[in-house]
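Project outcomes to date are best conveyed with an example. Our students and postdoctoral researchers have been running inverse folding experiments weekly, and each run begins with a structure described purely in tokens. The record below, which covers 235 residues, was selected by the lab manager from last quarter's runs and is presented without edits.
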């Protein structure tokens, strides 16, 4: 299947905007991962995005992705769970995904570690989800004692690899309103990195979506999660 003209053009436009934002902030565009968010998108659309050059995909729900996984035999694609993970779906998530970017508790990290060991995976990449100030969202508070417990437990979780942090700021129409949240996450990531904790590698800062990713890049994002700007508005 070839990619539709719209998806090809949308991917190219997003990449141009990423590059411009990165260069404007003194960052290297090649250091920023473009992740296509494929929530509610059928397998055909995912294949079109792959053919348009996308290699990183984010899914929100385990069961939804399971239903379309059989059609996505793409050896060079990476599928990541970015939505909230329920404990009863951990085994299936570890089986289906290349990474999990929504770890919001030490207990969940331990469950993923155990499932990853049973699945024979050496070290499943994960990100810790941080809540920078939206009570409606999941994630650990930057000041949460559990965040510190999770960071210190990492050296004993031999079958997961903590690669960084992610956040979803409160949604508003004005991208600038997200800037303090992005700045807070990047500051937290840099602070954790300076602590040089065993088992922790703060190489990925996942923040920014279709309406605010340029602001996120300016504040140090290394992974932007783009759905609408690639696929159009969901019906």
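After processing, the design step wrote out the following sequence:
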């Amino acid at each position: 299947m070839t990619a539709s003209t719209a998806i090809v053009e949308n991917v190219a436009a997003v990449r141009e905007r990423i590059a411009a934002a990165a260069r404007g902030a003194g960052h290297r565009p090649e250091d920023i991962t473009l992740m296509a968010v494929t929530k509610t998108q059928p397998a055909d659309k995912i294949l079109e995005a792959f053919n348009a050059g996308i290699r990183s995909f984010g899914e929100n729900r385990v069961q939804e992705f399971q239903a379309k996984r059989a059609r996505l035999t793409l050896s060079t694609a990476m599928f990541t769970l970015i939505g909230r993970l329920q404990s009863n779906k951990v085994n299936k998530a570890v089986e289906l995904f290349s990474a999990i970017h929504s770890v919001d508790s030490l207990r969940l990290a331990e469950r993923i570690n155990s499932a990853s060991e049973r699945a024979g995976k050496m070290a499943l990449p994960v990100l810790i989800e941080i809540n920078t100030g939206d009570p409606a969202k999941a994630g650990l508070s930057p000041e949460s004692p559990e965040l510190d417990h999770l960071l210190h437990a990492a050296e004993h979780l031999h079958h997961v690899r903590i690669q960084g942090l992610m956040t979803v700021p409160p949604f508003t129409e004005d991208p600038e309103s997200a800037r303090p949240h992005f700045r807070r996450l990047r500051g937290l990531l840099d602070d954790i990195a300076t602590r040089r904790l065993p088992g922790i590698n703060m190489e990925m800062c996942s923040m920014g979506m279709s309406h605010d990713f340029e602001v996120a890049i300016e504040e140090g994002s290394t992974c932007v999660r783009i759905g609408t700007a690639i696929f159009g508005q969901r019906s």
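Residues 135 and 170 are 9 Å apart (CA to CA). Residues 5-231 form a domain with the TIM Barrel fold (CATH 3.20.20.10). The training component of this project remains on track.
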